[in-house]
Automatic annotation (TrEMBL):
Gene3D superfamilies, sorted: 3.30.1360.40, Cyclophilin-like (2.40.100.10)
UniProt keyword list: ATP-binding, Hydrolase, Nucleotide-binding
Coiled coil: none
Species for this entry: Polynucleobacter yangtzensis
NCBIfam families membership: 5-oxoprolinase subunit PxpB
Residue ranges of domain Carboxyltransferase in the record: 7-210
The protein, known as: Allophanate hydrolase
Length: 250
């Protein structure tokens, strides 16, 4: 439960403020985070004073140049904005992302099904019928932490993390879902893999495909379709934004 009734202003060095809206991972608290971000974007007076802002599960960190901006005054303005922004935000983008749950793409799928006393197809059904909310981006560039995992799939991290997790891996652990945008070590349980690149430096204005506030829908595809999409996504003329228009990847 959230035990903070009002947002708190916390100093983060001499060039940033953190506005904290709660003390737990909670959809209501996160809606306040998104509400504040929405208000911040619309506040031109404040926006011109800051370098960037980073939302997380329950807070937003706002960065500024202390040589150019009065930090105390900015902190007061941010706190006032947070107290009045509420949790009214525009609906996040709906992203339908293809995932292959077959064979080598989901090395932990069978074990998860066994540990949760579920059929493998039931695990896949739970993943594809749920809507996952993006709480924050962290750990790696473009790595989204997703809420909305069904309680029946709540499972601990691996006791022994892998040294290598393939890029695009869809994973669950500790009541959350995530996607690895890069090959890296990791201790989450791997259920499938998407052929869609989650981070592209060619999109300099927004290299990460997924952003905080987005709503993610997983769409099951077979291995042959995965291979087709993998090739398509690697073409230099592939339009990444086309994913915003596609709901059926079969």
């Amino acid at each position: 439960m959230n035990n903070l009734q009002q947002p708190r202003l916390l100093a983060l060095g001499d060039g940033a403020w953190t506005i904290e809206f709660g003390s737990s991972i909670d959809p209501v608290i996160h809606s306040r985070v998104l509400g504040f971000c929405n208000a911040l974007q619309k506040s031109t007076d404040i926006a011109e004073k800051i370098l960037e802002y980073l939302p997380s599960f329950r807070s937003v960190s706002v960065y500024y140049d202390p040589a150019k901006v009065d930090g105390i005054l900015l902190g007061s303005e941010l706190l006032n904005l947070a107290q009045n922004s509420g949790n009214q935000v525009s609906e996040g983008r709906q992203l339908y992302i293809p995932v292959c749950f077959e064979d080598e793409f989901g090395p932990d799928l069978n074990e998860v099904a066994q540990l949760k006393n579920l059929e493998v197809n039931k695990v896949i059904d739970l993943m594809t019928s749920s809507v996952f909310s993006v709480y924050m981006i962290g750990f790696l560039p473009g790595f989204p932490y997703l809420g909305g995992l069904p309680d029946s799939l709540n499972i601990p991290r691996l006791a022994n993390p892998r040294l290598t997790v393939p890029a695009g891996s869809i994973a669950i652990a500790a009541g959350m879902c995530a996607v690895y945008p890069w090959e890296s070590p990791g201790g989450w349980r791997l259920l499938g893999q998407t052929p869609v690149p989650l981070f592209d430096v060619n999109h300099s204005d927004h290299p990460a495909l997924i952003a905080s506030g987005d709503q993610i829908h997983w769409c099951s595809i077979n291995k042959a379709r995965y291979a087709e999409l993998k090739i398509e996504c690697q073409k230099t003329n592939w339009d990444r934004d086309s994913i915003l228009e596609i709901k059926d990847w079969s």
